[in-house]
Design brief:
The complex is a heterodimer. Chain A is mainly beta. Chain A is built from no helices and twelve strands. Classes of the chains: A mainly beta, B mainly beta.
Chain lengths: 115, 115
């Protein structure tokens, strides 16, 4: 069965510091992996996705993520965090016949950015 | 930029009452979804809808739930007789194409509180 684990419930970083949010997945086939961000009062916005090819994927807002099959991980990174990055971040794995018909989400990591 | 819109943003209802949550997907999208997020828990897939029928549903989506696309623009989720445990944020999502190529666009959510 598909599952996603985000081990960090809450992370606090200083503005300008680097960020890494962890995500581990469990899926029997080649995974389709996603990171979404949810700002307060907003819907879920896609940051980036991995389907195949280069294991380092670039997303919007300066985020990147690296797919590591050997570790079943898809960690999200940003070299320098901005105050506007404070939000909830969700990792998800795509499942279903074509791999992206529905998504299984992790429990999310809430990011707080301090000045 | 096109977006998925949901109404109401917040609904409070008594246990046992019927609730209809409404969504207007992006106009040229063909695949429609409902997800929910119980407070403090992960976002969970409920149902997907294509070509005027349910294509996939989770075990959460029991007989109390139904979906409909009554007029070609709205996509509704009905809960026939609400229970306390139905209290959650409900997200509508849509995408244009099937499979990995289609990005899932989410609405801002409808918060349902069952008293």
């Amino acid at each position: 069965a598909q599952s996603v684990t985000q081990p960090d419930i809450h992370i606090t970083v200083s503005e300008g510091a680097s960020l890494e949010l962890r995500c581990n997945y469990s899926y029997g086939a080649t995974p389709y992996l996603f990171w979404y961000v949810q700002s307060p009062g907003q819907g879920l916005q896609l940051l980036l996705k991995y389907f195949s090819g280069d294991t380092l994927v670039q997303g919007i807002k300066g985020f990147e993520a690296e797919f590591k099959r050997s570790q079943s991980s898809f960690n999200l990174r940003k070299p320098s965090v901005h105050w506007s990055d404070a939000a909830e971040y969700f990792c998800a794995v795509g499942a279903g016949q074509t791999g992206a018909n529905n998504l299984f989400f992790g429990t999310g990591t809430r990011l707080t950015v301090i000045p | 930029e096109p977006e998925v819109t949901q109404t109401p943003s917040h609904q409070v209802t008594q246990m046992g009452q019927e609730v209809i949550l409404r969504c207007v997907p992006i106009s040229n999208h063909l695949y429609f979804y409902w997800y929910r997020q119980i407070l403090g828990q992960k976002v969970e897939f409920l149902v997907s809808f294509y070509n005027n029928e349910i294509s996939e549903k989770s075990e959460i989506f029991d007989d109390q739930f139904s979906v409909e696309r009554p007029d070609g623009s709205n996509f509704t989720l009905k809960i026939r007789s609400t229970k306390l445990e139905d209290s959650a944020m409900y997200f509508c999502a849509s995408k244009f194409g099937q499979g990995a190529a289609g990005e899932l666009f989410f609405g801002e959510g409808s918060r349902l509180t069952v008293l």
